[in-house]
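Running log. JK asked me to keep both predictions on one page so they can be read side by side. First protein, sequence followed by its tokens:
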Amino acid sequence: INRYEVSRHFKRITGYNFKTYLILIRISIAKDLLVNTNLSISEITNKVGYSSESLFIRMFKKYENVTPTRYRLSYKYD
């Protein structure tokens, strides 16, 4: 089995290509850390596997339509 077949089967099963699926997993973990810990955005960036804080913030905003800081603040007052 070659990597293209694996990629096709992965998308058929999950509905996402591998890169998008990985981003969604990372964001899901980050959301939990933002709400349930006092870790800084920088610490969360590293914990979820991003080497660049700006890239993490950009991806978070792209998929959640809000920055990580605003996401955290929205849960502090609920």
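And the second, directly underneath as requested:
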Amino acid sequence: MSLADSSHKLERKLGLFPVTNIVIANIIGAGIFTTTGYLMGFLGNPILMLILWVIGGVIALCGALAFGELGAAFPEAGGEYIFISKLFSPMLGFLSGWLSLIVGFSAPIAASAIGFSNYFTWAFPTFQEWLMLNELLSPGLFNRLLAILIILIFSFVHSRGVVLGARVQNTLTLLKILLVVGLIAVGLAFGNGNFQNLHSGSSIDLGFDDWKAIGLSLMFIMFAYSGWNSATYIGSEIKNPGKVIPRSLLISTVIVTVLYVLLNLFFIYAVPVGEMRNEPEIGGLAAGFAFGPTAETVISLLISFALFSSLSAFIILGPRVYYKMAEDGYFFKSIAKVHPVRKVPSNAILLQATIAIILVLSGTFEQILTYMGFSLGIFPIIAVAGVFKLRIQNRSRLKLPGFPVIHLIFIASGITMLVLAYMQRPVESSVAILTALSGIPVFYWFKRKSFNR
């Protein structure tokens, strides 16, 4: 490779600390601050909900162990796209990348941006009036435009270079962890609440309807855990990826699982079950019950800015998948372009921002969560199954413990969750499946185009 060629490639600049920060930021996002109210609406039982958060963490940890082995074997940008393409088929890999483009990253960016705007306007209900936009915009449209503005700002920041982006990410992630830890510690130690709330929910008889509700709830929970695999998307920019990728995935997943369970315990302690049901701004609501209206405003504001961290992480990771697809000839050639000075896939960042903005304008928050949760559950199952092929072919560079039990747990739980969630929300789930299948003709179009060049 010539010097000119190498100047247009991604560079390995990220160590364990920034990569772990990116993974944690990618996991802790809109999900934990918005899904608990919906879960209580589905389940009606606080203890069952806490158990499902623990189960979700175990599933994510099983996935992290599997992806750590895959990331060590294929230390390149792309995540599932690379693993599935190399272990199964380029078409299956392309479909995972196609889903990442439309749903996997763009939809979480949209959800995080909407979560920010919802919490921000919850904290400052007169903000729109202060800008003198009451006469021009409805509150819903104002929130969407605010979300779009945030997407554009962070896309611009990350188009300036990975080092600057990582510094911004490190700061945002540390602030977010401090917020979560502070909310748990101060809330449980000094906040008003009652642990009797744990026993105030409805009973569960585990009939078929309950199992469907559990499946849908686990899908929402796994959305909140999504990002446990995110270090594998930036493998081309990680120093010593064989060690850093698996370590960052395992460290971050364990930390986040502990924080999630304790944070949900605080929500249950602070908020009566009846008040919690279907409430999207659960963090602000819990702060209000625990400390009063002033704290509700302050915490809602802090949560709104904490969501910047996850939104920022998604904007870092997603374009690396599209970049790799384009580099392999399965996407528009311009998307593989790396800025000669800033060393980032600028066009891929712009494309992702455009799709995220379209999603912000096109659906409700709960619809986006359901569509996204189902979509994100499909291809990690196939990627984890790839570890079996990796072992059979003796191509594994780092054999992590737990094989094959953790892999079978991940695959079985993932399939069960998708089936139950489909039965509970067939429309959004069908749209997710059709979105994935719509990539098949696109793949063959790019393949023929690449062959004819």
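Observation for JK regarding the second prediction: Residues 17 and 358 are 33 Å apart (CA to CA).
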